């Protein structure tokens, strides 16, 4: 992996959002997101971000206060806002040698020489959605391992957690629909829908580009 690979990933994200044609960030001089490289696990990752809260901005842009400040601006379409975070790098290892419960390896852009990426942190949060016949107020996909490997509260799930490798009530890759507003505690910012009774729909390893484009197709029908 090289810095050029990270720059290429950034360019591909930019091309994806540019082709959607209706998303804007008015506070950002035309940039669709903020980006920077960050060093984790003795390797470099590219950060793609918009609409972060203050704690996230400081975490993912630790060396650039201006970029951290700008990362608070979400993407917008009509009244709808989109916040997103993807901390990724190319993956060129052996798929058979990794534990898929602890890593998110997903297809990306094979025709642009980045066939697979590894995702370290990720979410795509769509909120303030205009009135629609589907009655969607907000929805969110996220890759969240904070609680995915803890024992389930539900005793009947514990044998399945051992079988699957993670807590089925809080899968690492999951989807929220019509969550409640943000909550906060001392340890970390709890995102919308982090109550114990929230529905977290387990999903597979989505291609981030496909995820963004599929959301945009639906938004453009509103």
Kindly summarize this structure in a few lines:
The chain has helices spanning 3-20, 54-60, 65-70, 158-164, 208-219, and strands spanning 34-40, 43-50, 75-77, 80-90, 104-109, 114-127, 139-143, 173-177, 183-184, 189-190, 201-202. With 222 residues, it is α+β, with helices and mostly antiparallel strands.
Averaging pLDDT over every residue, what do you get? Answer: 88
Q: What Rg is obtained from the alpha carbons, in whole angstroms?
A: 17 Å
Give the overall form. globular
Secondary structure tally, helices: 5
Task: Please give the share of residues in helix.
Answer: 10-25%
Order of helices and strands: HEEHHEEEEEHEEEEH
Model regions low in confidence, pLDDT < 50 over at least 5 residues: 182-190
Main sheet: strands, sense, barrel:
9 strands, antiparallel
Secondary structure class reads alpha+beta
The percent range for strand residues is: 25-35%
Euclidean distance between termini CA atoms: 41 Å
Q: Give the number of DSSP strands.
A: 11
Give a written overview of the molecule.
The protein is of the alpha+beta class and 222 residues long. The protein has five helices and eleven strands, in the order αββααβββββαββββα. It has helices at residues 3-20, 54-60, 65-70, 158-164, 208-219; strands at 34-40, 43-50, 75-77, 80-90, 104-109, 114-127, 139-143, 173-177, 183-184, 189-190, 201-202. Strands 1, 2, 3, 4, 5, 6, 7, 8 and 11 form a nine-stranded antiparallel beta sheet that branches. The chain has a two-stranded antiparallel sheet with strand order 9-10. It is globular and about 50 Å long. The termini are far apart.
């Amino acid at each position: 992996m090289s810095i050029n690979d990270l720059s290429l990933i950034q360019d591909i994200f930019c091309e994806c959002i540019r082709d959607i044609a209706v998303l804007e960030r008015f506070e950002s001089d035309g940039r669709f997101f903020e980006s920077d490289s960050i060093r984790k696990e003795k390797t470099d990752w590219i950060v793609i971000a918009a609409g972060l809260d203050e704690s996230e901005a400081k975490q993912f842009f630790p060396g650039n206060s201006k970029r951290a400040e700008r990362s608070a601006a979400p993407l917008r379409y009509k009244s709808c806002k989109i916040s997103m975070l993807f901390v990724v790098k190319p993956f060129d290892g052996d798929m058979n040698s990794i534990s898929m419960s602890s890593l998110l390896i997903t297809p990306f852009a094979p025709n642009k020489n980045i066939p697979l990426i590894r995702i370290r942190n990720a979410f795509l949060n769509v909120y303030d959605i205009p009135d629609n016949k589907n009655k969607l107020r907000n929805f969110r996909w996220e890759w969240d391992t904070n609680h995915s490997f803890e024992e389930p509260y539900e005793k009947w799930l514990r044998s399945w957690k051992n079988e699957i490798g993670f807590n089925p009530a809080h899968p690492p890759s999951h989807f929220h629909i019509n969550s409640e507003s943000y909550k906060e505690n001392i340890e970390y910012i709890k995102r919308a829908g982090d109550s114990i009774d929230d529905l977290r729909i387990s999903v597979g390893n989505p291609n981030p580009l496909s995820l963004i484009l599929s959301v945009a197709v639906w938004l453009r029908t509103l």
